[in-house]
Amino acid sequence: MDAGTSVITQTILLIIVVVFTAIYFFFKKNYNYWKNRGIHYEEPFLIFGNLSYVMRKSSWQMFKDWGKRNSSDYYGIFLGWKPALIIQSPEYAKMILVKDHHHFLDRYLYSSYDSDPLGSLNVFSVKSPLWKNIRQELTPMFTSNRLKVLTELMNVNAKHLVNKIQRDYIDKREPVNLKELFSMYASDTVGYTVFGIHVSALNDPSSPLWYITKHMVKWTFSRGFEFTMIFFLPFIARTLRLTLFSQPATEYVQKLFWGTVKERQSNGKTSDKDLVNHLLRLKEDLKLPAEAGSQLAEDMMLAQAAVFIFGSVETSSTTLSYCLQELAHHPEEQEKLYEEIDKKVKESGNDVLNYTDLMELKYLSACILETLRKYPPVPHIDRACHTDYQLNNDVLIEKGTPVFVNVVHIHYNEEYYPEPEKWRPERMLNMADNDNRDFTFLPFGEGPRFCIGKRYGLMQIRAAMVQMVQKYKFEPAVGEPYQIDSDPYSVLLSPKSGGRVTFVPRSNEKNV
């Protein structure tokens, strides 16, 4: 090696040492953030902070594990190098989400119109003040009168659901994937709710809505990585220009939406029964910035359609999957539920229960709400601190700090729910859908940004449960454990295996 080469090599090595030393001290300084403030925190690991679990363990499981290790009302974590605060007491959750929500107006997750219009403009992730306007315009979509009409459609799709169970999982003895099955059911309902089209993925897997939703709800390594970056590391998501919805799903939403609009314009027909007309009015009514072009308004409409499809399918299918799993392992509770439904059917004189009848099934509601208690689809509620906020005498949350309400931990706190690992519907008897039990029950969030489709989702679950329980008993599937692992690629709760039970027709009650 000549002298020139030696000097170059030494220079390169020196640069590498300097860079790594600078990185080391940068992270060391950042990782003292909570220590310097006297706040307990999860010990960070290298450059990952407390995200080293990513793609090996689900975020749902991680928030549960953090809660087990930390009994305090709050503690610090690090999202890579970014300090974040986890809140896990009802009192502080109420302050963050409701009482002082003006300090926490927006979610922390990545949102950029330039690289992800549909992901940034939907009612779930859009920033204030635009969020407030969108929310007000969408609220009329979820009135009781409208939900009564949609319940009729949900009942039709629930009938298709029980027929598919008989056809595929009993007659043909095909293996069951509950998550996929219920995603198809929810997809059929949302097809009419959003676009006013009657399609059935349960009868025809080539359904256009199923083409969209199967891309949205299929958790692959790449989609899991995208969601994780979007939710927890916005800087990386921005750098990589990641998107909330996959490209195939985005293109198909655009195609269906504008196809529906074009068809209505050509035949002169309009309909207030679906989301399309509400979104067209949204485009006209929203007071957008003067410099905003027509593309912004159009993207805003499509964003609401996309997020409604994703939200209604993903959360409802997960809740139905876990509810059936629990009923299969709790035959006494299952029989009690059947007796309640059977009694109501006989009282009504109808084989299919309407909106009012479904709302009166108290034990069914208790089973659903207890499932949401034990398996909240979204493990945390994220907010970004808008202005410096004094949480208490000891804690000042600085502007820009991410704050997470640990929903899973609150739901598993023995002080509020004794023996929290047990599924006990009686905990939730006579509980109203809008009762947060003094901020100890938060599966739909709370405050101004609570889930706008909450009542829609609950009714969708009720309609499916009633018809399935009438027709079938659920028994544990051979080889399927009681506790199903959550999908490590999913930021939201999703059963890794999809979930399985054995369906037994009540007509003969023979094992199948």
UniProtKB/TrEMBL annotation:
<dbReference type="InterPro" id="IPR036396">
    <property type="entry name" value="Cyt_P450_sf"/>
</dbReference>
<dbReference type="GO" id="GO:0020037">
    <property type="term" value="F:heme binding"/>
</dbReference>
<dbReference type="InterPro" id="IPR002401">
    <property type="entry name" value="Cyt_P450_E_grp-I"/>
</dbReference>
<dbReference type="GO" id="GO:0005506">
    <property type="term" value="F:iron ion binding"/>
</dbReference>
<keyword id="KW-0503">Monooxygenase</keyword>
<keyword id="KW-0256">Endoplasmic reticulum</keyword>
<dbReference type="InterPro" id="IPR001128">
    <property type="entry name" value="Cyt_P450"/>
</dbReference>
<feature type="transmembrane region" description="Helical">
    <location>
        <begin position="6"/>
        <end position="27"/>
    </location>
</feature>
<dbReference type="InterPro" id="IPR017972">
    <property type="entry name" value="Cyt_P450_CS"/>
</dbReference>
<keyword id="KW-0492">Microsome</keyword>
<dbReference type="Pfam" id="PF00067">
    <property type="entry name" value="p450"/>
</dbReference>
<dbReference type="GO" id="GO:0016712">
    <property type="term" value="F:oxidoreductase activity, acting on paired donors, with incorporation or reduction of molecular oxygen, reduced flavin or flavoprotein as one donor, and incorporation of one atom of oxygen"/>
</dbReference>
<keyword id="KW-1133">Transmembrane helix</keyword>
<dbReference type="InterPro" id="IPR050476">
    <property type="entry name" value="Insect_CytP450_Detox"/>
</dbReference>
<feature type="binding site" description="axial binding residue">
    <location>
        <position position="451"/>
    </location>
    <ligand>
        <name>heme</name>
    </ligand>
</feature>
<keyword id="KW-0472">Membrane</keyword>
<keyword id="KW-0479">Metal-binding</keyword>
<comment type="similarity">
    <text>Belongs to the cytochrome P450 family.</text>
</comment>
<keyword id="KW-0560">Oxidoreductase</keyword>
<dbReference type="GO" id="GO:0005789">
    <property type="term" value="C:endoplasmic reticulum membrane"/>
</dbReference>
<keyword id="KW-0408">Iron</keyword>
<keyword id="KW-0812">Transmembrane</keyword>
<protein>
    <recommendedName>
        <fullName>unspecific monooxygenase</fullName>
        <ecNumber>1.14.14.1</ecNumber>
    </recommendedName>
</protein>
<keyword id="KW-0349">Heme</keyword>
